[in-house]
Each structure stands twice: as C-alpha cells, then as structure tokens.
Design a protein that fits this description.
Layout lengths: L13 E5 L30 H9 L3 H15 L7 H33 L2 E6 L2 E6 L8 E5 L7 E7 L5 E5 L1 H4 L4 E5 L2 H4 L4 H4 L4 E6 L10 E7 L2 E7 L4 E2 L4 E3 L3 E8 L5 H4 L10 H31 L3 H4 L8 H5 L2 H15 L6 H20 L13 E2 L13 E4 L6 E12 L2 E6 L2 E4 L13 E2 L2 H4 L2 H6 L7 H20 L4 E3 L21 E3 L3 H12 L2 E7 L2 E6 L2 E14 L4 E7 L5 E7 L1 H4 L3 E3 L2 H13 L3 E10 L1 H15 L5 H12 L3 E13 L3 H10 L3 E5 L4 H10 L8 E5 L5 H17 L5 E6 H10 L1 H9 L3 E5 L3 H12 L7 E5 L5 H6 L2 E5 L6 H5 L2 E3 L4 H38 L13 H11 L1 H10 L5 H6 L15 H26 L14 H23 L5 H23 L13 H6 L2 H28 L3 H11 L20 H10 L36
Parallel strand pairs: 15-30, 15-34, 27-29, 30-33, 31-32, 32-33, 34-35, 35-36
Antiparallel strand pairs: 1-8, 2-3, 2-4, 4-13, 5-11, 5-13, 6-7, 6-12, 8-9, 9-10, 14-36, 16-17, 16-29, 17-18, 18-19, 20-21, 22-23, 23-24, 24-25, 25-26, 26-28, 28-29
Helix pairs in contact: 1-3, 2-3, 3-12, 8-11, 8-29, 12-29, 12-31, 15-16, 19-20, 23-24, 23-25, 29-31, 29-33, 29-34, 31-35, 33-34, 33-37, 34-35, 34-37
Length: about 1150
C-alpha cells in the first residue's frame, strides 16, 4: 500500500478514465491500473505486526542489550540463570506489544468505519448501493446533500439546470465558506441515472498530486458520432473529505481513489514518535553500558593478574580438569569477560522499560478522567491516542495552531456599524447609536429597532434622539435604507428554503424576515451581514437568474444583476452593478477600508476612518460600503469595456484589473460594518499563558491574509503594539531573498520593539526552497508568526523546518480538520480538536481535546507532572541499580574475582520486580510536587522544566554519584562493622558469605525505598501502603523463603540465614546506622539547596505553604485544625517540601487567586464540600 505524503509512482504523466468504465470496443487498448478506494491510517497488519513491532522494540538499546545477554547466558556457563534476563525481557516485549497493538487496533476500527460507509454508484443502468472501499476509478457516484465525497470526483451534473453545486472544504483547508463547482454543459443536462447511462465520455487528467488547488484535465464527450472536448479545472473537481451543501444531489465520476486522493496525499506517513525523555534514557543506558563493560574488563584483567601466581591459579580446593588446562586462553578470557558481563548486567535496568510503559499507559487515563478537560456542551472528554508522549507535554517550546475551528468557533456575528458618520452597536437585536446623530438635538442613545419604525415619523417625533424635522427624518431613513440595501445586494450569498430554522429568533426577530430562509455564503462575513440586514427590515429573499429579490419593510423589490466584479486579493474589494426598480443603474462596493476610502469622493470619510480604527482595536473584522450611480452613457461605456476584457484571450487578468479600477472610482461612502469571528472561550488567555510559559505560538491557516491577521489580533496572538512584518506575494527567488534581507535589517534596527511576521503560502515555498537559514533567522527573532494560505503539506514542512533547526525544539501542533493531519503527525506532539470539521484530526492525533483552552491545563499541569514524574523515575532507576550492582563489583576484590555472587539468585531476580518496583511506580502516577492550581496560575513555572532540564547530564551525574556513594556505604559499612566480628551470634557462630550479602541487600532495600519517600511530596494512603509495605514485604518474604525448606528448590543457600541475621542486635544497629548515614547527607543537601539556592518551583512550594492553601494535596480537602507536627518537624517539612494530607489542613478563602472550580478526577480522598 502506498505511503502517505508521497505522490505515487506512475508510468505516464496523465491518466485516461473511461466514464462508467465503458472501454472502447475496437482498436488496441491497454487499460491503466488504479488502486482501490481504501483509506489506511494504521501502522500494522495481522501479517507484519510481530516482525515490525519486534524490530521497533529491539531498536531500543536496553531491549537489544538484554537480548544479547540472554543469548550469552544460553551459550556459556554463567553465574546466573538465563531466566534472570529472559523473563523480564519477555515481559517488557509482551506488555509493549499489547499496548501498541491495542492502539493500532483502534485505528483499524476507525479506518473500517470510513471504508465501510455506504455509497451509491451507477452501474448497469441502475443505482447500486456499495461500500466506499469498492468505488473504482471511472465509477459514476451519487452524493446527496450534506454527505461527504467518498473519492475525488469530476462533477457531471447536479439538481440545478446549470450543473452547479456548493461545497464546503472545512476539513481540507479549514475554510467554512461555500465554494461553487460547475459541470461542463454537455453533462450538466444529464440529471437522471437513465440519462447518465447513455453518456459516452473520456476524462484525461494529470496523475495524482498533493496540491489541493491544482487540477488540469479535459473531457471528450461523444455525441452523435461527434467528439466535443471541454477543459477541466479545479472548479470541476470535488475533493474527498469535502461536503456537499445547498444542493439536493450531484453525480460525479471518480478520478482519484483511496490513497491517491488529494486528501490522502496530504497526510504524512505514520511514523513512530519518540519522546525526548526516551532519547535521554538511551543516552544514559549507553553511559551505563560503558560503565558495565569497563567493570567487566577491569574484573577480567584483575582476575588474570591475580591468577598469575600459581597458588591462586589452581588452589588445592579447586583443581582444574584436563580440558580446562588445555583450553584456549583467548577463549577463556572471552568466556570470563562475558561471565562478568552477565554478573554485572543488572546495572542496566530492564525493568525500567516495564515501569515506564506501565506509567505511561496507566498515567494516560488521568487525562481522560480529568473533568476540567471535559466539555459539557459537546459531551466530549479528552482522549489519549498515544500514551508514549505524556512527558513530552511538559517540554513544548513551539505551538503551531490552525485558526478556523481551533481558535475560533466558526461563527460570524454582526456587532457594530458606522452609517454616514454615526456609529451603531447591535444590542438585543436593536441598533444603538453611541452618540448624537448628525442632526439630533441631544446626545442620548437612539434606538433603531427597524426601518419600519423609522418609517413612522410620529415615532421619530417622540424619539429622544430623532427629534428632527420630517425632512431630516426622511433623509436618515434614506441613508440607512441605502446602507442596508448595499449590504443585501453586494454579495454572493445563496439561499435555501428547505430548512425550517428561522433567520433570527427572540424579541429582535423582524416581522419582515421570512422564517424559512437559510443563507449560504462563500464568505462567512457575507452571511453574517446579510442576516443582520434581514433583522433590520431589509431581507434578501433570493435570486432567480439575473433578478435579485429584496424585501424592504415588507415590500418586495426586484433588482436586475448586471455584473459582478469578483473579489481578488490585489483590489481587496468586490462590487455588483444592479438596475433598481426605478431604472437607475447603481454600483455597490464592499471591501477593506484601505481599498475603499482612497476611491471615495463623498460621504463621512474621516469619521468612518476613525470608526473603522476603533472597530479594529476591538479585534472586529471590518468592511467599508460605498456606492456610485451611473448615467446611461457611463454604463454603456462600462458594459463595453467589461465585455472586451472578459472575452480577451491574452492578458485577460490585466485588462480586467484595469476596467475594475475604471469602474470602482468616484464612490460615495455609505459606512462600515464590524463583524466578530467569535473566538472560542478563553483563547486570548490561553495564548497569553503559553507566551508567559516561554512557548512561541505560530498560527498556520489556509485563510486569506486579512482574515487571519484580524483573528490573530483579536485572539492576542498579535498585539497592537507589535511591529507587523509581511512577506507576501513574492514572485521570484531573488525578490524573496531581497525582502527577507529587508525584514532582517528592520528587526536588527528595531531590536527593542516586538515583531510579528505574516507570510503566505507562495512566499513560504520560495523562502523554504533557497533561503531556509535567512527565513529561520527572521522567524526566530519574531515574537509571533502567522502563515496564511497554507496547503496542508506546507504546514508540515514548516514544522519540520523548526524541528531540524540547531536548537532542536519540541513542537506541538493543534488543529481540527483533515487539512491539519499532516502537521499533527509531523510535530513531536499532535493534538486534535474534536470540533465541527469531522474527526480526521482527532483520529490521527496523539491527544484529542474539545476546546483550545484545555491546552493550558494539558501542558502546564499534566505535562508538568508527567515530566517531573518520569524524569525522577528514570534517574531513580539508575540510582537504585548502581546501589544494587556496585557491591557485587566490590565483592569480587574479596573473592579472587571468582564470579561468586554476593546476593542469592532469587534476590537478584526480585530486587527490581518486587522489592523496589511499586513505590516508584505509584510515585510516577500520583506525585504532585506543587498544587495544580499554582501550576496553572503561574505559567512561568513551565520554563523551569523546559529543555529537558530534569534529565540534564549534571542531574544524571548527581544521581549516579549518589548511587555509588550509597553502595560504598552499604558494602564497606557492613564489612567494617560486622565483617570480622565473630561474636555477633549468641552461639559464637561466624557470619558467612550469604549472611554478609543479605545484610548488604537489606540495608540497600530499606535505603532506596526511604530515598523514594524523601523524593515524594504528595502522600496518599496508596503511597504509604506501597512504601512501607514494600519494606515489610521484603522482611516477610525473606523469613518465609529462608525459614522453610522448599521441596521444589534444588539448592537453598539462604536457609535460616535471614532469621539468624535478624536475631543479632548488632546487625540491627548496623542497618539503622548505615540507612541514617546514607540519607542524612541527602537531607542536608536538600536543606542547604532550598535555603540558599531555591528554584522557582521550590519558592512556589514555600509560598504555597504559607498561603491559605496549606498543603500540596490538590486532590482532597480537609477540615480546619492545628497540625499534629511538632515545631521542628514542621520546619523540616516546610524546608524539604513535605506534605501529608493526614497532618496538614487545607482551606480555601474567597481571596484565593487559584481556580476554585477544579474538578479533577484525580481525587482519591473524600472531599468535604463544607470546607472546600
């Protein structure tokens, strides 16, 4: 199957498709082969799961290492059994395979859901129901209203006579506006299955490519033995993933299917993501592997140095066999080296991977259980699709976000307008002027409920702000009437009467607005404006052919649409020329203020300019409205020029631009509109929090430049004080390089000012082609970057560019549509929004949330906790394994390097699996070193854990040296305290080898468990159970293991050893003394660091301890009461950062600056609502 993100290989540049698969009956014909219509997002199949998964798992250093150790143990005689390495390795591989297999199985389910969707296909003269995966290239497919296109189709016909249909591509490019597609005239008339069955036609088009906006082809139709050739362009192609709107049904022929559709080609190949922590683990493992090999080499060399003396080479109690005397010395050296390697191999913790996998898998449930990440309106909770990246949420440096549906709600709302110099605001469906109207006698607020009320002059006479003469009142009515008529006529809105939802409801519903109209628009702004005009009494009823119908105060008026001057990004405006019922020919213009105001010669230009600036400061999207009246002679000249330009075969675009400029001049300004693209709740606060946390936010969108900048300003991504730099409409490499150089100079010269960069898709392509370094330098020096008109793969390329930059930052991508899938998969962490644009993003993401605002808690709380937990877990594992194996290495100096083990084989196996595994696992699931509310309210604390600080080489070396120092205390403390003492037992019996090893092991188990207790800031009953329970379990197990002769054990070296050890008071004294010695130094260091060099997190802990929140426990509330701790204990606990829910009270006050509505499902203890 083809990999996503790459254009598939084809032998020719074009493909020939016979519609309805009617192949020629005569002549030489070699059919082309096309793939089926299946979409595949999964990584494994039943057949390749085992080999592929094993290959990926053995790429891990530890897994591969233990496989080698296991094979060595099978091949040669080693001090320990192969089971000690083989069993943990098998467990790790099995657990990981089950977890990854389950996650991929979920992807298979979602793929099957898409591929098994029912579709209608025309076959054998009838309409046949089949599954989506069975569509073949050449099939004629029927799609009904609101259905998603199952493949890339060339439109053949629709239920409209002109063969047009309307489509929304929100899930592909993020745009929710309607796009119009048209069929060629010869097929547009074939509106039934019977007629389509007679169609004989061939489509020739380019091979599949990822560009959503590019399609070239031609259709050859055979009619009455005559061939008609029609060109096909993007307007003829209906893309998979797009949705049919405002059209009852269409028929189209499938040209690209399955993984060759443009949607699939814009997906990146699914690759295994690996977190920064896992990479650090591999680095640490390599360092420990070097330590291990060094210890094995040293032990082997010292063994042969020692055995150079004959008395030690073959002592009387250990005579060599003849075979041993004659064996090769080189092979014997290698065999001894491997034996030492096996003896010390536990310094590499295989159980680390088991614990990490369990921690990630179990820890991921807390995200789904967190009620603060639950969205009640949509009944959606957070989802975890990949638990391997939990800790990566705490390392994010760049956030790349889509705009439409991610930052916004996809809902435009009319807010304000300026009419003839007077500013109005819509409040409860009424227009409220913010000051006196031009001719009013006082400054009280005036209410314009509808033009119907304005038409009532008696109402005007009594209105406080319309106390004017009848002439002035009539003039005011005319101004508003003309303004809203411009709004109702200057657009490309389509209308549907199928829906029953009213245009408006509530007290502001206009009595003139038809209750069954539903507007569809190519721009969401246009839809909001037309609906607003309808609320104020001028209702666009629809158009039939060239006639546009408008109801003004209940009276139907018909305007003849003469010309549409389409919007283009250079003019930044659109116009319509209409003939009024009175015969007047009017030009209505709508566009950005920068393109309208310079062309105006009349109207309140300066007042409107001020109002537009005020609207923009509020983050509203602004448009200016103007008009012009033509004389008959002027219109004839305009009509002639338009006809010549539109029929020109050469330089058509330039000629049209000239004519448009000639028409759109000498305008009379009517006013301006202000529309709000409604942002999601708390988007501005979230972006500001991300910025405070040191995270750079980039907005990547397929929207137009103006729209994207407007939303960036309103959501706080761009600040008003920010210097906005633009890299737009670059045509060549040299032009792009020159512009980038200019921007770089401006940044250097204005280094104090914050800069924001705006770049479009075409300019970005040029910048990435030849000038990557210069472009990246400009971007890194900008506080915010916004990329508009981005194709899906361009989004992924931008993220890849940042990923491979010298700093290697951790990236996060968040989006809600299929157009965002490639960037979600490219980023280190991909987050899908479960929004209105389908579930492709959520299905292909690592995490899925319902709203953008949830990102702050996901990163600042969950990400912070996961990173701290797993960083401590990794370093603690290396620490306890150094403690474990270093005494074994030191013991070889006292046993002539005979490879004698210090510990019993059962202890060797169970040390990491049973005795020390649970405390660190529970810590890594429940630890909260600081209150979640503090983390969310102080985003700057996120900086303290960025750039993998907790797993730096300095911290790693500290834990390693700590492990070695504790190991030396265990071994030499035991040796000097009781190693040569014969009177420790009452009967005068000496301590033996196993007793000595058991004493070292006992001190070690207690010390490493107590060390974990020292690192724990947040205590629950579970922590107490596993911490003290692990020590108790070790003692109980050792008593049973050594106190009974087990019949299934071939040898039992530990029989009665542990019982004898515990019967010695000196042994107990030695255990207590060594444990206290080890931990005292650690406590002193912690106290010193917290008092004289506290980190920001430690300062926050101390501040929190002194505030009304008196406990680090965010999961439970406790009643007021005096702490049970003594004064010295309280001081130590405060210094060390200790908190015990059973000892410390917690109360909330009304003045607390923290979120008091935290409903985290992490709650483990009963909450007393009376004290919360």
């Amino acid at each position: 199957m083809l990999k996503w993100g790459f254009d598939p290989p084809h032998q020719s540049d074009t493909r020939t498709i016979y519609i309805a698969n009617r192949f020629p009956q005569y002549g030489h014909y070699t059919p082309q082969k096309f793939i089926d219509n299946r979409i595949i997002s999964s990584k494994y199949t039943v057949w390749n799961f085992v080999p592929k998964n094993l290959f990926e798992q053995f790429r891990r250093v530890a897994n591969f290492y233990f496989l080698i150790i296991f094979l060595v143990q099978l091949m040669i005689d080693t001090p320990t059994s192969p089971v000690t390495s083989g069993l943990p390795l098998f467990f790790v591989i099995t657990v990981t395979a089950i977890k990854q297999g389950y996650e991929d199985w979920l992807r298979h389910i979602s793929d099957n859901e898409v591929n098994g969707a029912p579709v209608y296909v025309v076959r054998s003269g009838g309409l046949v129901t089949t599954r989506s995966k069975n569509i073949r290239v050449g099939d004629i497919v029927r799609v009904a209203k609101n259905e998603i296109f199952p493949a890339d189709l060339v439109l053949l016909s629709s239920d409209r006579l002109d063969g047009s249909c309307h489509v929304t591509t929100a899930s592909l490019d993020g745009e929710t506006n309607l796009k119009t597609h048209v069929a060629v005239p010869e097929t547009a008339v074939l509106q039934t299955v019977a007629n389509l069955d007679t169609l004989i036609a061939v489509v020739e088009c380019q091979q599949p490519e990822a560009d959503l906006y590019r399609f070239m082809g031609r259709m050859t139709i055979t009619q009455q033995m005559e061939e008609i050739v029609r060109p096909l362009g993007p307007e003829s192609l209906l893309l998979r993933g797009a949705r049919l709107k405002n059209t009852k049904e269409i028929f189209g022929v499938a040209v690209y299917t399955g993984m060759e559709t443009k949607m699939a080609l814009n997906y990146k190949s699914k690759s295994q993501k690996r977190s920064a922590v896992e990479k650090s683990m591999n680095t640490f493992l390599i360092i420990y592997l070097i330590i291990l090999i060094s210890e094995a080499i040293i032990s082997t060399i010292l063994k042969y140095t020692w055995q150079a003396e004959e008395k030690w080479d073959e002592p009387w109690y250990n005579q060599k066999t003849e075979h041993q005397r004659n064996s090769s010395k080189i092979l014997k050296f290698i065999s001894d080296f491997l034996a030492f390697l096996v003896l010390y191999n536990f310094i590499i913790p295989i159980s680390l991977y088991v614990t990490v996998e369990l921690q990630k898998f179990l820890g991921s449930f807390f995200i789904g259980w967190d009620l603060d990440l639950y969205h009640e309106e949509s009944d959606e909770k957070a989802q975890v699709n990949t638990s391997d990246l939990n800790e990566e949420l705490g390392q994010v440096e760049y956030v790349f976000t889509d705009k439409t549906g991610t930052l916004t709600e996809n809902e435009m709302q009319f807010r304000e307008c300026s009419i003839n110099g007077t500013k109005y605001q819509e409040i409860n469906g009424r227009l409220v002027s913010e000051g006196p109207t031009p001719d009013s006698s006082d400054g009280n607020l005036s209410y314009l409920t509808s033009l119907a009320h304005l038409n009532n002059l008696s109402h005007l006479a009594t209105s406080s702000s319309f106390r004017t003469s009848p002439e002035n009142g009539t003039e005011l009515i005319k101004e508003h009437d003309l303004f809203f008529k411009a709004v109702s006529l200057c657009h490309t809105v389509q209308i549907s009467s199928v829906q029953t939802d009213s245009i408006g409801d509530g007290p502001w519903q206009s009595s003139f607005a038809p209750a069954q109209l539903e507007y569809y628009a190519s721009s969401p702004d246009e839809k909001a404006l037309v609906e607003a005009a309808a609320r104020f009494g001028i209702v666009f009823v629809g158009n039939s052919g060239e006639i546009m119908e408008v109801k003004t105060l209940g009276k139907l008026e018909r305007y003849k649409l003469l010309h549409i001057l389409e919007f283009d990004p250079d003019r930044r405006r659109m116009s319509v020329i209409v003939q009024a019922p009175s015969g007047e020919k009017l030009l209505f213009v709508k566009g950005a203020e920068s393109s309208i105001l310079p062309e105006c010669i009349g109207g309140e230009i300066e007042k409107t300019r001020i109002h537009v600036d005020e609207f923009a400061l509020k983050g509203l999207r602004t448009l200016c409205m103007a008009y012009r009246q033509f004389t008959s002679k002027e219109y004839e000249e305009i009509n002639r020029r338009l006809f010549e330009a539109r029929t020109a075969l050469q330089q058509r675009e330039e000629k049209l631009a000239g004519v448009f400029q000639f028409i759109e001049k000498d305008l009379i300004l009517l006013g301006a509109t202000a529309v709000e693209d409604k942002l999601q709740d708390k988007v501005r606060e979230t972006i500001e929090a991300l910025r405070m946390a040191g995270i750079k936010v980039w907005v990547l969108t397929g929207d137009k430049h103006e729209t994207a900048v407007s939303v960036s300003l309103s959501c706080g991504h761009f600040h008003r004080t920010m210097n906005i730099l633009e890299l737009l409409n670059q045509k060549s490499d040299s032009e792009c390089a020159e512009k980038l150089g200019q921007l770089a100079r401006r940044i250097r010269e204005d280094h104090v000012i914050q800069h924001g960069l705006v770049v479009d898709g075409t300019s970005l392509s040029l910048a990435l082609r030849e000038h990557e370094k210069l472009f990246m330098d400009v971007c890194r020096n900008c506080s915010a970057v916004m990329c508009c008109r981005m194709a899906p793969l361009q989004k992924a390329k931008v993220i890849r560019l940042i990923k491979i930059s010298p700093e290697k930052p951790i990236t996060l991508a968040i989006g809600d549509g299929a157009n965002d899938v490639s960037m979600i998969q490219e980023a280190h962490v991909g987050i899908g929004i479960m929004g209105k644009e389908g579930r492709q993003a959520a299905r292909n993401s690592d995490y899925a949330i319902a709203r953008f605002k949830f990102l702050s808690k996901l990163l600042f709380v969950h990400g912070h906790f996961y990173y701290i937990r797993i960083a401590t877990l990794v370093q603690y594992f290396f620490y306890k394994n150094v403690c474990f194996i270093t005494p074994q290495f030191l013991y070889q100096f006292y046993c002539l390097f005979s490879q004698q083990t210090l510990y019993d084989s059962v202890y060797l196996t169970l040390y990491n699996i049973c005795f020390t595994s649970l405390p660190i696992l529970i810590y890594s699931l429940l630890e909260q070193h600081i209150d979640p509310h503090v983390l969310q309210n102080k985003p700057t604390l996120y900086r303290d854990i960025s750039k993998n600080r907790q797993l730096s080489m300095k911290t790693f070396l500290y834990w390693t040296i700590l492990g070695f120092s504790h190991a030396f205390i265990f071994f030499f403390g035991s040796y000097f305290l009781i190693g040569k003492d014969t009177s420790l037992l009452g009967n005068g019996q000496m301590f033996g080898n196993w007793t000595f090893g058991t004493l070292v092991f006992t001190v070690m188990v207690i010390t490493v468990t107590a060390k974990m207790a020292l690192e724990t800031h947040f205590w629950t009953w579970i922590n107490h159970l596993v911490t003290w329970g692990s020590i108790l379990f070790y003692f109980v197990f050792s008593l049973f293991y050594g106190g009974i002769l087990w019949p299934f054990l071939s040898s039992q070296n530990m029989y009665f050893v542990f019982i004898q050890l515990l019967s010695s008071g000196s042994a107990w004294f030695a255990i207590i003394l060594m444990v206290v010695t080890c931990l005292f130094l650690d406590i002193v260091k912690k106290v010193f660091d917290r008092q004289f060099h506290p980190t920001n997190i430690e300062k926050a802990q101390l501040t929190e301890t002194n505030s009304s929140i008196k406990c680090l426990d965010s999961m439970c509330c406790f009643s007021e009461g005096e702490t049970a701790c003594a004064s010295v204990g309280r001081m130590l606990e405060r210094v060390i950062g200790r908190c015990s829910p059973s000892h410390v009270s917690r109360s909330w006050s009304a003045s607390d600056p923290f979120y008091t509505n935290d409903r985290s499902i992490l709650t483990l203890s009963t909450m007393d609502s009376s004290t919360c």
